[in-house]
Amino acid sequence: MADSSDKVSNGKLAYDKLREAIVSGTLAPGSRIRETEAADLVGLSRTPVREAIRRLESEGIVEHQPRIGAVVKSLSHQEIVELYEMRIVLEKTAARMAAKHASSAEIGELKDLNNAMLSAAKDAATVSRLNEQFHRCIFNAARNRYLLASFQALANAVLVLGPTTLENTDRVKLVCKQHDDIITALEAGDGKGAATAAGNHIETSLSYRLKSLRI
Fold first, then answer.
1. Dihedral angle at the C-alpha atoms of 165, 168, 171, 176, nearest 10 degrees?
2. Are 95 and 186 in contact (CB under 8 A)?
3. With the CA atoms of 26, 27, 33 and 35 taken in that order, what torsion angle do they form, in degrees rounded to the nearest 10?
């Protein structure tokens, strides 16, 4: 008989696998998540899958629709614009605050993450993961737990946008150049410059996201 630790680990494993399926586009926005099919997908029983779906619902990644069940949340064009508008506000605030508080170690981590993104430019999944770590590092450096919590909520929303726009080397090079601009301002303690660079970066990301929707 499985003990409680097995249940917890299986629930976490089911959550991680379902989340990754959503990130990769295997479960696209609007997709229905049937427990039996999801269990087959992640190679686990329905119980941990049910727990994982509930957690994804609580995070706003999955929603329950009447007479349908669990569905990967999808955003309208207007919701996507609103999401990026809020990202611009939060990222500019985080960059401005990080310019005051970031340690040399955190600046070094940002440089390492950006270099790793360039090195992995042909691996969209890896670049996407490193990109999220880069932005999370800035929010951590801002030293504000409420700002960090807001970032996590937006990260969950970004998750349901579908495949990453970081799918070609030219796009990755542009992102890394904009990251360099942010790092330079942070290293100089230039809060205004960091905020401007961060805002420009997210505005560019919005342009690419909207372009991907038209293709």
1. 100
2. yes
3. 30
Q: What is the pLDDT of residues 76-106, one digit of tens each?
A: 999 999 999 999 999 999 999 999 999 999 9
- Any idea which residue has 């990222």 for tokens? 91
In CATH terms, are 4-72 and 77-214 the same topology? no
Residues 28-71: tens digit of each pLDDT? 899 999 999 999 999 999 999 999 999 999 999 999 999 999 99
Domain boundaries along the sequence of the chain: 4-72, 77-214
CATH topology of domain 77-214: Four Helix Bundle (Hemerythrin (Met), subunit A) (1.20.120)
The answer to whether domain 4-72 has CATH 3.40.50.410 is no
Could you tell me the sign of the dihedral formed by the alpha carbons of 21, 22, 26, 31, in that order?
Answer: positive
- Model confidence band, residue 175 (pLDDT cutoffs 50, 70, 90): very high
Query: How far apart (Å, rounded) are the C-alpha atoms in residues 115 and 72?
Result: 33
pLDDT digit string, tens, across residues 110-158: 999 999 999 999 999 899 999 999 999 999 999 999 999 999 989 888 8
Helices and strands per DSSP (H, E), number in the chain: 9, 2
* Helix (H), strand (E), coil (C) string for 91-146: HHHHHHHHHHHCCHHHHHHHHHHHHHHHHCCCCHHHHHHHHHHHHHHHHHHCCCHH
User: Does residue 1 register a pLDDT over 80?
Assistant: no
